[in-house]
TrEMBL record:
Residues 1-23 form the signal peptide. InterPro entries: Big_2, CAP_dom, CAP_sf, Invasin/intimin_cell_adhesion. It comes from Anaerosacchariphilus polymeriproducens. This is BIG2 domain-containing protein. Residues 38-112 form the BIG2 domain. Keywords: Signal. PANTHER family: SCP DOMAIN-CONTAINING PROTEIN (PTHR31157). Pfam families: Big_2, CAP.
Amino acid sequence: MKRFKRLFFVVLTLILITGTSLPDITTYAASTKKTVVNSRKLKLKKKTLSLTKGKKATLKLAVNKTNRKVKWYSSKKSVATVNSKGKITAKAVGKTTITVKAGRYKAKCKITVKKAAKKKKASKSSFERKIDNNIDSYNNFIHDVLKYTNQYRVKNGKAKLKLNSNLTYIASYRSLEMAKTNDLSHTRPNGTTVGSLVRANNIDYRILGENIACYQFTAKEVVNDWYQSTGHRENMLSDSYSKIGVGIAKTKDGYYYWTQIFTN
């Protein structure tokens, strides 16, 4: 019986000793503070925002009475990021939440990133469609003019010119203008020259040349006529040029207007 009492006393003592540490534990747990979301002290002007991929937007605070510096966070940076000023950059399609914090206060905005809408191609005018049709219709003539022109260049020890699709578009434009007005002229109907047309189509060049002709019925005939003319021959054989565009158009009476455009 004495042995039992001693054991009980020891156990009781341990419990009492252990119990003395409990106040410290409970006091420590009681020090945590709750985070207040969308309170009267911190609010965003928007709670939801939709952006297309690649776009940017800035979230603004409607209220900030915390007297603290705010910090911004994104829950999913792969979808959208946010900088220290609340500027959002949409990175990829998806959803994320942007959070602004100031001390124990915070506000949130749900972000949805969508695919960017595909840009519609501007419809071509009837004249532009006619240019495309002309290039297709006179494709053989175009390549024949290139062939005979390069034959003269090789004969004179010059490098061959390369046919350029953008310049061919300009040359076809010029031939159609002249065929429409039935006027062989380096001055365009609007009073400008071919240079204005080249620049309007965003074609870079350092030097530019134009040969025009009318009434010839074959590529060989027109190239030969150009070669027999000093000014036209100089354009055809110039070392300054490496590219060429060729255009052909027919009048209502069945006559052809021919154009060569040269650039470096």
